[in-house]
Amino acid sequence: MASARIDEPPLPAPSLRFRPMRAIDVPVVMDIERRAYDFPWTDGIFRDCLAVGYRCHVVLQDGMIAGYGVMTAAAGEAHILNLCVDPHQRRRGLGRALLNHLIEDARAAGATTLLLEVRPSNAAGIALYEQLGFKRIGMRKDYYPAKGGREDAIMLERGIL
Asked: Which one is catalytic: 33, 54, 68, 129?
């Protein structure tokens, strides 16, 4: 998520639609991933997630991919592995809409718990997750690659009823 001020009201979301990610989407997803992260996932990671049947979704804004989410779901638990909005499309409610879509998809998959990790430096992401009911349950030391070393991850959990 962006590092914009979290007290700014989001801009109204334009026409949004969600659909499953397809292999043909990976080049666009990779373009967003590279612009959004200093340490992006690889093309192969996204293709592997699709191949093994992870729950991969894209959000379309006016027909164009503006973000994506990758989630696993098994044995009553779902885990968001990647949630990203195009840096040029942030602060418009897309991240919230995408996260709500993933929550509903986790529920449809039979999950009762949803987990994710977030960088402590991602204040906007943390604020969004907490606004949508995620609670801090722990830390993973040295989880993320970072400039000059590693960064911890905050572990978050949300019940799904």
From this structure: 129
How far apart are the C-alpha atoms of 62 and 65, rounded to whole Å? Answer: 9
Digit-coded pLDDT (tens) for 93-122: 899 999 999 999 999 999 999 999 999 999
Strand partners, 18: 59
Q: Which residue among the candidates 77, 117, 130, 157 is catalytic per the annotation?
A: 117
Amino acid (one-letter) located at 86: D
H or E element, residue 141 = strand 135-146
Question: Is 129 one of the catalytic residues?
Answer: yes
The tens digit of pLDDT for each residue in 56-106 reads 999 999 999 999 999 999 999 999 999 999 999 888 889 999 999 999 999
Q: pTM of the prediction? A: 0.88
Instruction: Respond yes or no: is residue 117 known to be catalytic.
Output: yes
CA-CA distance, 73 to 98, in Å (whole number)? 16
Q: Does residue 62 sit in helix, strand or coil?
A: coil
